[in-house]
Amino acid sequence: MRSQDLVDSSLVTGAAAGPVRVGRTRVAVIGAGPAGLIVANLLRKAGVDCVVLERHTRAHVEQRARAGLIEPRVVEMLRRFGLADRLLRMADAHTTCEFRIDGRRHEINYSAAHGGRRHYVYPQQELVTDLVAAFLDAGGDLRFQAADVRPHGLDTDRPWVTYVDGATGETTRLDCDFVAGCDGFHGVSRASVPAGALTEHSHEHGIGWLSVLAEAPPSTKAIIYALHPDGFAGHMLRSSTVSRFYLQCPVGDSVDNWPDERVWAELHKRLALRDEDWTLTEGPIIEKRVLDMRSFVVEPMSYGRLYLAGDAAHIITPVGGKGMNLAAHDAERLAEALVAHYEGSDALLHDYSATCLRRVWRSQEFCQWMTEVIHASRDAGSSFRQRLAVARLEHLLTSPAAAAVFAENYLGQD
Ligand code: APR
User: Fold this and answer.
1) Rounded distance, CA 278 to CA 217, Å?
2) CA of 33 to the centre of ligand 1 (A)
3) 88: CA distance to ligand 1 center in Å?
4) What is the per-residue pLDDT across 69-84, written as a single tens digit (0 to 9) for each?
5) Catalytic residue among 110, 120, 352, 410
6) How far is the CA of 77 from the centre of ligand 1 (A)?
7) Of 160, 207, 261, 320, which one has the fewest beta carbons inside 10 Å?
8) Burial of residue 414 (number of CB atoms within 10 Å: 0-12, 13-18, 19+)
9) How far apart are CA 76 and CA 83, in angstroms?
10) 3-class DSSP state of 204
11) Which tens digit of pLDDT belongs to each residue from 243-301?
């Protein structure tokens, strides 16, 4: 399917000056995060030729620590395609989470409230590592260090993508049938769509989080969401040696204001239990970032022959652990729609955006609810909203029906 001929760049519309290699594939996938790698693996398994273009090195994408909570339906999808072997061996299954309010623990067994389904805790970079290996082992074409990637002709039946090989400096033009834009929020795919063709819905929550990754074994078996008068604190799980913590902070705060001693002092204070012994295990901090809580959705998730998936199309607050799961859902839907196209039906491609957006908005609504609830003790906007958030939390902790709804949202609908 693929060809690589050296031609003069003057023959190639829209390409940079200098010698240009020309290649051909059916689907050009931009970005090797969870979305792009799942699209590529599923296409490969169905025998649909694709090329993945990733701006960073393999080492970079395999070490980039991000999310870690995987919904049961995503694990099942990966298993079905033979992509979950290491995940199922290494990942911990989780069934409960814990809210700490006024120094008291309230556990929710969300698994019991939703038919025994369980989350898996598996760091995103481990999943990315598995997906890169699976794709390359199957003979997949993944080009790292692809610089200046640019899609062209998206509103035609013959789009193409140009990029510069980071190692050789050579420009390549890749002709294709479709472009899968899986290059995250700051990627080039969505930015290539003409102004006005897509509608953007965006929301700033007015809440900042200091995100901390520490080489510290978990001090808990379940994720902790702690409400404290000084702000929210979270203890998330990653592995037996690494934990993620979050501390609510002012929007636009700087990590310079958060020396390690202050991080640990605030975590000890906000996670403390009143009537029980509990120890927070410290460890070297390996990453600190300030996140401003924001939500963003673009509609539709396609333009001409470009289909957006994952963070390229939507950003969600990290509170419900949905970002990676939505990326995986989009990727599965996009791959099946592209495979159906080559089998003669465009119905799934036609419905791709609407199908994905239904799940995206359900998740946005849940994460908005959860964002308001866990920040109830501070910066809820007004004392009225603060009281509403407390009422929601009380409902969740006292009503089996409310717990069942939470469980369905938290675990993700099948
Ligand atoms: N050219 C080529 N590659 C690019 C470009 C570009 N112009 N811009 C970005 N990329 C690559 C990034 O280096 C990254 O590897 O696209 C990939 C996008 O991956 P992610 O940001 O992980 O996005 P996605 O695959 O949609 O996964 C969403 O990742 O951001 C987290 O928490 C989020 O869990 C969610 C998940």
Assistant:
1) 14
2) 5
3) 24
4) 999 999 999 999 999 9
5) 410
6) 20
7) 261
8) exposed
9) 10
10) strand
11) 999 999 999 999 999 999 999 999 999 999 998 889 999 999 999 999 999 999 999 99
- Per-residue tokens: 304: 């001409």
pLDDT digits (tens, 9 = 90+) for 339-394: 999 999 999 999 999 999 999 999 999 999 999 889 877 665 677 877 887 888 89
Contact present, 121 and 237 (Cβ < 8 Å): yes
Give the global pTM: 0.93
Phi (first) and psi of residue 127, to 5 degrees = -65, -45
**Helix, strand or coil, per DSSP, at residue 221:** coil
| Cα 258-263-264 angle, rounded to 5 deg | 155
Structure tokens at 331: 């990727």
Contact 35, 309 (CB under 8 A): yes
Strands annotated E in 183-301: 199-214, 223-227, 233-237, 243-249, 285-299
Specify whether the CB–CB gap between 258 and 211 falls below 8 A: no
**Cα dist from 61 to 30, 132, 135, whole Å:** 14, 9, 14
pLDDT at residue 49, as a whole number = 98
Give the Cα separation of 334 and 348 in Å (integer).
Answer: 8
Cα 227 to Cα 321: distance, rounded to the nearest angstrom: 18
State how far the Cα of 332 lies from the Cα of 310, in Å rounded to an integer: 11
77, amino acid identity: M
Strand order in the sheet with 223-227: 104-108, 97-101, 223-227, 233-237, 243-249, 199-214, 285-299, 314-315
- Tokens of residue 150, six digits: 């640019």
**Which 8-state DSSP code applies to residue 279?**
-
Active site residue 259: no
- Closest atom of ligand 1 to CA, residue 61: 15
